[in-house]
Amino acid sequence: MEQPPDLVEPVLAWYDVHARDLPWRRPEASPWSVVVSEFMLQQTPVARVLPVHEAWLERWPAPAALAAAPTGEAVRAWGRLGYPRRALRLHAAATAMVEQHGGEVPRDREALLALPGVGDYTAAAVASFAFGQRHVVLDTNVRRVHTRVLGGAEFPGPSVTRAERDRAAALLPADEATAATWSVAVMELGALVCTAADPSCPRCPVAEHCAWLRAGRPPHAGPPRRAQAWAGTDRQCRGRLLGVLRDADGPVHRQRLEAAWDDDVQRERCLAALVADGLAVATSGATYALPG
DNA sequence: TAGCCGTGGAG
DNA sequence: TCTCCAAGGCT
Prior knowledge:
Blueprint: H1 5-18, H2 31-41, H3 46-59, H4 63-67, H5 71-78, H6 85-100, H7 109-113, H8 120-129, H9 140-149, H10 162-171, H11 176-192, H12 211-214, H13 234-246, E1 252-253, H14 254-258, H15 264-277, E2 281-282, E3 287-289
Antiparallel strand pairs: 1-3, 2-3
Helix pairs in contact: 1-11, 2-3, 2-8, 5-6, 9-11, 13-15
The structure holds a DNA duplex.
């Protein structure tokens, strides 16, 4: 498979002009700053991550600082970013960096992959964006751009396929630093131009090469992507309960939690799950709190 | 692997 | 109002 020579240059040129000035992208940003940003950005929009990321870096400027803090403080400082287990995983990752990597963010992709909360995407992203390495970085933005420009379809399938990964690898520039910039540039293109709901093809630097646009932007043909139920789910219940603990200074009485959710069975199930997950602890027979 | 895990802004 | 979904990971 040969590299189509016309994609890299236009995308890099576009990125040079339109890239957002994000804290974790600045030259002085530490690898730790990149790690914190990648955890927070997992399924959470940039706009909501920005203030929390800044607060975290101020409070915990290095892995050792976070590792020394109680996990409950990490959960509290996570605020309303969602998926609070990410805060626990980031704390655990910081601990692993202290215990196994001298307090530094490991540079090796395999070592990154071994950290809690770091999967294939995050390992490649940190290795690329913090250390300038050459890796296939496949997130939802990149997958969407590749699917449209090269695949001619509106949306990628539910999971990454081997063919998709091979295609991404074939597109990756040979030079290490160029590859790293290419990866972040394609992500940015997906985030700002080739968006899911409202792509603005007139502003796209590779519109003339886009198979999907050329085909008349045909709508998604595959199985409908199942909408995630929300009202009345355990997720909503857990969020409600954890919100009570997060917004309290100290332990809260059961009554406060009971007032937050009507269904007794579901509330008790979720409370037990939060404790099992390490997001909450029973501080007495009748009180709960974030873990100390 | 499919289901689960939060939250709130945008259209 | 309601649906969609935003730089995933884990089991």
